[in-house]
Amino acid sequence: MNRDLIKNLAIGGGIVALALAASYARSQGLIEPETTTRIVIVAIGLMVVWMGNRIPKTFAPSAGARKAQRVAAWSLVIGGLIYTAAFAFAPMDVAIFLGCGAVGAALVITFAYCLTLRSRARAA
Residue 117, exposed/middle/buried by CB under 10 A (0-12, 13-18, 19+)? Predict the structure, then answer.
């Protein structure tokens, strides 16, 4: 099996195990329900950061693709860090707006940059 697939499945399994452990701790009265939610969401944010960090390490067939990968990596890492920090420290209603907005903005920035590269390539 592909090593990247195994790593991704392991991370997904780790997040599920973390969610189950946090749910068990909540049912035992060790942590509050909001803390359970925050633990899992912060883990997902860290996964976004990790995936963004891995993007430029993958093969890209052209210089334009490498440029797009760098922008995607930077935007997802920064968006993921904002998402993680928001859900770790901000009130929940602010964290939802700020965290999801940061990841959404990262995706929009990446998509817009790819469209810009495409239009430049067609013009040349």
Answer: middle
